[in-house]
């Protein structure tokens, strides 16, 4: 697929640099135009395999004078040839655009998409509340998947223990048991991942809660994003990815 024919759901204007190190979770040092620059890292997870010294990283730029760090680390182009989006907010942007444009056949019967709606017994916010013309609701939670846990293309979520993800699954399970349509969408932001499973070796409780949620009626989908220096684009074979056993 040529660059000109790609349908970008998330477009970015990015500047390349070379990664030196990530530290204190939210910071990274890079070499940019021959100078050492500290940039903001928007990912709070372990980011395993998402950035090694010497990798090319792609940075967005903010002109806001209040920003302490002008650059934000958005993408990694690894030395092995993979593209990874390390900013988890982009997963929500990508999925939101896919839902609004009704690109996902499984969700095309929904005509309205509302982001960040309060719901549940634990004070949660659902990533997307979907509505049909008859005002029937569907609840969609997005998870950014960047952990390539096996070299044969198996990805896993989460890359670190996540109490927040536990809460989301409990909320979705309660709704599913009431017969409400609920969906968990793993947005794959790593070009090497071909299937996804819960990371039971990292967060066994998350894996258990996922099993319980699916038994209650939660539907799990995998949505891969194409990634390059211009942003995130729709893949025509997006439905070919699957959950791993």
Automatic annotation (TrEMBL):
GO terms for molecular function: DNA binding. Pfam families: SfsA, SfsA_N. It comes from the Bacteria. Residues 20-86 form the SfsA N-terminal OB domain. Residues 89-230 form the Sugar fermentation stimulation protein C-terminal domain. Belongs to the SfsA family. This is Sugar fermentation stimulation protein homolog.
């Amino acid at each position: 697929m040529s660059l000109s024919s790609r349908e970008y759901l998330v477009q970015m204007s990015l500047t390349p640099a070379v990664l030196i190190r990530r530290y204190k979770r939210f910071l990274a040092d890079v070499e940019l135009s021959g100078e050492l620059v500290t940039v903001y890292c928007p990912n709070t997870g372990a980011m395993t395999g998402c950035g090694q010294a010497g990798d090319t990283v792609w940075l967005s730029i903010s002109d806001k004078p209040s920003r302490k760090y002008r650059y934000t680390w958005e993408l990694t182009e690894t030395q092995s040839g993979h593209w990874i989006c390390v900013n988890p907010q982009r997963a929500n942007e990508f999925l939101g655009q896919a839902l609004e444009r009704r690109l996902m056949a499984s969700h095309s019967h929904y005509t309205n998409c509302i982001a960040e709606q309060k719901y549940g017994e634990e004070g949660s916010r659902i990533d997307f509340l979907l509505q049909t013309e008859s005002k029937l609701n569907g609840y969609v939670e997005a998870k950014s998947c960047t952990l390539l846990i096996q070299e044969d293309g198996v990805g896993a979520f989460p890359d670190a223990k996540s109490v927040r993800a536990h809460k989301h699954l409990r909320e979705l399970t309660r709704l599913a048991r009431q017969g409400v349509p609920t969906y968990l969408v793993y947005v794959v932001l790593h070009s090497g991942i071909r299937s996804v499973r819960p990371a039971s070796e990292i967060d066994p409780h998350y894996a258990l809660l996922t099993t319980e949620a699916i038994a209650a009626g939660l539907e799990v989908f995998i949505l891969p994003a194409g990634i390059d220096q211009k942003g995130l684009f729709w893949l025509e074979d997006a439905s070919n990815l699957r959950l791993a056993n």
